[in-house]
Amino acid sequence: MGKKKDKKRWKKAGYEAGPMNGAGGGLAQGLSRLRNSEQFLLGALIGAGAIYVLGDEALRGKLLKAGMRLYGSIAGNFEEMKEQLADIRAEMAAEQGGA
Question: What is the model's pTM?
Answer without folding.
Answer: 0.44
